[in-house]
Design brief:
The complex is a heterodimer of chains A (115) and B (111). With 115 residues, chain A is mainly beta. Chain A contains no helices and eleven strands. The radius of gyration of chain A is 14 Å and the shape is globular. Chain B is globular and about 45 Å long. Helices cover 0% and strands 60% of the residues of chain B. Chain B contains no helices and eleven strands. The chains are: A mainly beta (115), B mainly beta (111).
Chain lengths: 115, 111
């Protein structure tokens, strides 16, 4: 089944303890992205990647890191989490548009709480 | 920068009614427009994808239209059911391959 898989689904951690949220897709998509969703603020893009070893900042990159060493994986790293990073996180992927228009496929989300 | 607006922010209708959700965008240079459904605390499920060259797409009781030149899309839901209650988001894909999301319409269908 074609899908984007995020892990973990739920995570409670303490301030300053490094964590990684994994994202993997099995559709051979070039484009991958991370979003956070907060009440009243909608979806905000954190980082995106157009292909292996190519990553760019989105609208709210502060406090986050990403890497794209393999096409299928795009982990989100919080080096020193703070309570304001408590949020619902989504990973998404898509083909790049070369000749046609492709849509987005989303993961199921990761609910992160930083105390 | 592309801006996507969804009106209304919230909508409540009795079961059985037909309804229309609106999405507008400021830059008509897009590859496609996608409608999503999101249940509380859950992921986004793709409902319909309309290419920039298309005028509409249909899936079951859902019909989405696109007027690229005027920067508008509508999602029509026929014979609404309580199970349709969710937040509906639209997203446009710009020609730079970026996606831009609206803030959503929260729909409640009252039995």
């Amino acid at each position: 089944e074609a899908q984007v898989t995020q892990n973990p689904r739920y995570l409670i951690t303490v301030t300053g303890k490094k964590l990684t949220v994994t994202c993997s897709q099995n559709m051979n998509h070039e484009y991958m992205s991370w979003y956070r969703q907060d009440p009243g603020l909608g979806l905000r893009q954190i980082y995106y990647s157009m292909n292996v070893e190519v990553t760019d900042k989105g609208d709210v990159p502060e406090g986050y890191k990403v890497s794209r060493k393999e096409k299928r994986n795009f982990p989100l790293i919080l080096e020193s989490p703070s309570p304001n990073q408590t949020s619902l996180y989504f990973c998404a992927s898509s083909f790049l548009n070369i000749r046609g228009g492709y849509g987005y496929t989303f993961g199921s989300g990761t609910r992160l709480t930083v105390v | 920068k592309q801006e996507v607006t969804q009106i209304p922010a919230a909508l409540s209708v009795p079961e059985g009614e037909n309804l229309v959700l609106n999405c507008s965008f400021t830059d008509s240079a897009i590859y496609n427009l996608q409608w999503f459904r999101q249940d509380p605390g859950k992921g986004l499920t793709s409902l319909l994808l309309i290419q920039s060259s298309q005028r509409e797409q249909t899936s079951g009781r859902l019909n989405a239209s696109l007027d690229k030149s005027s920067g508008r899309s509508t999602l029509y839901i026929a014979a609404s059911q309580p199970g349709d209650s969710a937040t509906y988001l639209c997203a446009v894909r710009g020609t730079g391959n970026q996606f831009y999301f609206g803030t959503g319409t929260s729909l409640t269908v009252i039995p």
